[in-house]
Amino acid sequence: QVIEPNICYFLVCGLGGRTGAGLAVNLTKLLIEQKKSFHTGYYTFRFEGKRRFSNALRAFSELESLAGNQLISIQLEEIRTQDMKVNELFKKANQCMVERIQKLMMK
Predict the structure, then answer these.
(1) What does the H/E/C string look like for the chain?
(2) 16-46 tens-digit pLDDT
(3) Measured in whole angstroms, how far is the alpha carbon of residue 46 from the centre of its chain?
(4) Which residues contact 29 (CB under 8 A, 6 or more apart)?
């Protein structure tokens, strides 16, 4: 069995494509079904185009209805600076996600 008892799971992914969005929704459903403690973190951004942003909004809507306040959101536009490269942006986003997870673990 992949999912172990008495563990809080953190699922972190981007929602712009279909792989992370599909995984996030399906794994969140599985965790709910098995009554596991979890938080789902995600990244969204507009700069990849309308289709990917639309995918992200659709996945977010489904995750929000499933997980509610167990969502951890990182809006990349909010942490991006004008001259920041994409790899730097994701590094910063990952640092923000780790900080938020650490705060949750301290509660």
Answers:
(1) CCCCCCCEEEEEEECCCCHHHHHHHHHHHHHHHCCCEEEEEEEECCCCCHHHHHHHHHHHHHHHHHHHHHEEEEEHHHHCCCCCCHHHHHHHHHHHHHHHHHHHHHC
(2) 777 777 888 888 888 888 887 777 777 666 6
(3) 15
(4) 66
Cβ distance 9 to 3 under 8 Å? yes
- Whole-prediction pTM: 0.67
Cα–Cα distances in Å, from 78 out to 28, 45, 75, 96?
Answer: 25, 9, 6, 11
pLDDT digits (tens, 9 = 90+) for 2-13: 555 567 777 777
Q: How far apart are CA 89 and CA 78, in angstroms?
A: 10
Q: How far is CA 56 from CA 6, 52, 59, 84, 102, in A?
A: 30, 6, 5, 22, 25
